[in-house]
Amino acid sequence: MKETEILIVGKNPDIMPVILRLLNKKPNWNGYTAFSADEAIEKSRDIPFDVVLLGAGLTDTEAGQVRAHFTVPIVQHYGGGSGLLYAEVYQALNIQP
Amino acid sequence: MAQTIYHPANSRGKIDLGWLKSYPTFSFGDYYNPERMNFGALRVLNDDIVDGGEGFGEHPHDNMEIISIPLKGGLKHHDSMDNVAVISDGDIQVMSAGTGIFHEEHNDDQDEAVQFLQIWLYPNVLNVEPRYDQLTLNKADRHNKLQQILSPNANDAGVWIYQNAWFNLGNFDKGTSVDYALKAKSNGVYVFVISGSLKINGQVLNTRDGFGIWDTDAFTIDVMNDSEFLLMEVPMQF
Predict the structure, then answer these.
(1) Cβ neighbours for B153, distance < 8 A, ≥ 6 positions apart
(2) Would the pTM count as exceeding 0.80?
């Protein structure tokens, strides 16, 4: 099965590791974190992300930078945990669990 | 003409973790139904039952307005802002998660299950400073009339959130009826029947059924049997 590469871009140093752990719990999903738009863009040079999640704390400018750079689905992540995370990825990629 | 959607109680998801039985109206956690994502700004409506002595360990939230309404028993809350509280039937709790908050919540009783509604709304502004509030409501104020329990305004009745939403609870006797006028034409109302049976726009609703109505200025609730229900007016576009 194809691996799904998922990038979460956000600022909260305590929540980001939780989201990363939740993403990596799913088989064939590989989560990555970036704490700034610049870091997200830098990582995209090496990793072909399938979807990008915008986490808490990003400024409008940084969110705009991310949206301008990536051509894959970009989703505003809400909730900061497991509640909505999986549905956001399923919906963005139009896949079923 | 009013648009409507009917969600029978038995069409909801079911999450069974042993200690937790949750019936989500909309996709949540490992329950995913692309046809059940939200009703406007209303994203989560979970009907939760937590066994005695059990609960949710510490976990984070961000950028979401989170409302808890206990229906039976007490729920103990502790968060990273050092709020410690027990909310019980008759209370309402709200958190604006904003830039991020950690909390845990447990059944305050070691034996009896606690039942509560967990409701999440998309906020109308991102990355606010997290905040917590709770309020004890006078249940007599919802007998055969609507009791506002939530609004966007700090000076209005009930708790307030970062969204143009209004919640009302009602506890009506059989044979009564009540009209509800929406605050804005662009809003919709999601009705959740806590108990009883009633009729809206020709649709009969029973215990734990949900019903959304929009593209209307007002509607009438005809109470068929003694009923307790929650009305959630939310923006349909946000």
Answers:
(1) B160
(2) yes
Q: Could you tell me the CATH number of the domain that includes residue B205?
A: 2.60.120.10
B108-165 pLDDT, tens per residue?
Answer: 999 999 999 999 999 999 999 999 999 999 999 999 999 999 999 999 999 999 999 9
B33 and B121: one domain?
yes
Is this prediction's ipTM beyond 0.85? Answer: yes
* Residue reference for tokens 């109308």: B124
Structure tokens at B98: 């904003």
In 3D space, the residue among B50, B52, B45 whose CA is nearest the CA of residue B118 turns out to be: B45
Q: Is B100 on the interface with A (CB under 8 A)?
A: yes
CA distance B36 to chain A (A): 10
Closest B-chain CA to A77: B63
Which region holds residue A50: left if phi is over 0, alpha if psi is between -120 and 50, else beta? alpha
Among B34, B61, B102, beta carbon nearest to A79: B61
**Chain A contact for B122 (CB, 8 A cutoff):** yes
Stated as kind and residue range, the H or E segment containing B171 is strand B166-172
Indicate whether B125 and B162 sit together in one domain: no
Residues of B in contact with A80 (CB under 8 A): 60-64, 97, 100-101
Kindly list the residues from chain B whose CB atom is less than 8 angstroms away from the CB atom of residue A97: 30, 32
Instruction: Please indicate if any CB of chain B lies within 8 Å of the CB of A96.
Output: yes
Residues B100 and B132 in one domain: yes
Each domain of chain A, given as residue ranges in start order, spans: 13-53+63-73
